[in-house]
């Protein structure tokens, strides 16, 4: 948004008129981002591989929501996906690169193939979609790209070498893209969630109750975050209120990353 435009509450935080594509948007944090952005007025399109989850999510959101079944590791299909969505619903004004793949394994046992598989989603898949939406954003002189980073990109966490490598590489991509694209009115930022109470984290804690206790004890706010905490952070980053913010990584972590 041009710096000369005066903003007032609540329009400063409104996403009315925005068209947001969210990868991995059918469940967990991706769905929370979709719910918050939809509530802020945006049209959202959820992208993922599991149609049943996407359809259920869109039904829950209602109007201004749709989905597209797509595997983001099919890099050559990204332009066709964006072209189809643009034709059906209008140009994408905000891309949320949320889809990811996790691997819990010691570094010494992680194979090159496993490392490449994790990187293919977080880095190559996100880059392919970003590359597909950017020409339109550059032409319109306005746009947002938001990456979902991680605590694993901020400090050492054992047994996640592939995931940490991917998220750390993401940091470099964000900063470079933000520098390149700022003159064209396109902002690029990231959110780094801490430990969030999702179905995935609850499943992980079921077999290791001591792990949750340890995590909470290391979190200054002494609790897990809620998916909506990440969702509303994404709304802020995409909103006119954040029009002078680019190249940043915003921790949403209850204070974990500040050190103690």
Topology, pairings included?
Blueprint: E1 19-23, H1 28-39, E2 43-48, H2 51-61, E3 65-69, H3 78-89, E4 94-97, H4 112-140, E5 143-148, H5 161-181, E6 186-193, H6 199-206, H7 209-217, H8 227-238, E7 249-252
Parallel strand pairs: 1-2, 1-4, 2-3, 4-5, 5-6, 6-7
Helix pairs in contact: 1-8, 4-5
GO molecular function, one term: gluconate 5-dehydrogenase activity
EC number: 1.1.1.69
Protein name: Gluconate 5-dehydrogenase
* Estimated share of beta-strand residues: 5-15%
As residue ranges, the low-confidence spans are none
Radius of gyration: 18 Å
Strand order of the largest sheet: 3-2-1-4-5-6-7
Order of helices and strands: EHEHEHEHEHEHHHE
Biggest sheet, open or closed, and with what strands and sense?
A: 7 strands, parallel
Give the end-to-end Cα distance, rounded to a whole number of Å.
38 Å
Return the CATH architecture: 3-Layer(aba) Sandwich
User: In which range does the helix fraction lie?
Assistant: 40-55%
CATH class: Alpha Beta
What is the molecular shape? globular
Examine the coordinates and then state which fold CATH places here, giving the name of the CATH topology.
Rossmann fold
> Which structural class should the secondary elements be placed in?
alpha/beta
Count every helix, treating DSSP H or I runs of 4 or more residues as helices.
8
How many independent structural domains? 1
The beta-strand count equals 7
CATH superfamily: NAD(P)-binding Rossmann-like Domain
Summed over residues and divided by their number, the pLDDT gives a mean of: 94
Transmembrane segments: 145-166
GO molecular function: gluconate 5-dehydrogenase activity
EC number: 1.1.1.69
Protein name: Gluconate 5-dehydrogenase
């Amino acid at each position: 948004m041009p710096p000369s435009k005066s903003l007032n509450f609540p329009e400063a935080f409104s996403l009315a008129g925005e068209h947001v594509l969210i990868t991995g948007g059918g469940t967990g944090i991706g769905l929370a981002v979709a719910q918050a952005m939809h509530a802020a007025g945006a049209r959202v399109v959820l992208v993922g591989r599991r149609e049943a989850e996407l359809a259920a999510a869109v039904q829950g959101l209602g109007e201004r929501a749709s989905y597209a079944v797509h595997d983001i590791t099919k890099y050559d299909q990204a332009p066709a996906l964006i072209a189809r969505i643009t034709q059906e619903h209008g140009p994408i004004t905000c891309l949320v690169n949320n889809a990811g793949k996790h691997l819990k394994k010691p570094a010494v046992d992680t194979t090159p193939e496993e490392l490449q598989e994790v990187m293919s989603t977080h880095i190559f898949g996100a880059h392919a979609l970003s590359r597909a939406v950017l020409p339109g954003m550059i032409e319109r002189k306005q746009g947002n790209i938001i990456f979902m980073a991680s605590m694993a990109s901020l400090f050492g966490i054992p047994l996640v070498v592939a995931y940490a490598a991917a998220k750390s590489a993401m940091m470099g991509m964000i900063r470079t893209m933000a520098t390149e694209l700022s003159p064209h009115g396109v902002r690029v930022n990231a959110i780094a969630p801490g430990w969030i109470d999702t179905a995935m984290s609850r499943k992980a804690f079921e077999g290791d109750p001591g792990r949750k206790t340890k995590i909470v004890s290391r979190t200054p706010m002494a609790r897990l975050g809620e998916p909506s905490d990440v969702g509303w952070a994404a709304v802020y980053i995409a909103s006119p209120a954040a029009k002078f913010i680019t190249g940043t990584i915003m921790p949403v972590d209850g204070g974990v990353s500040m050190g103690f």
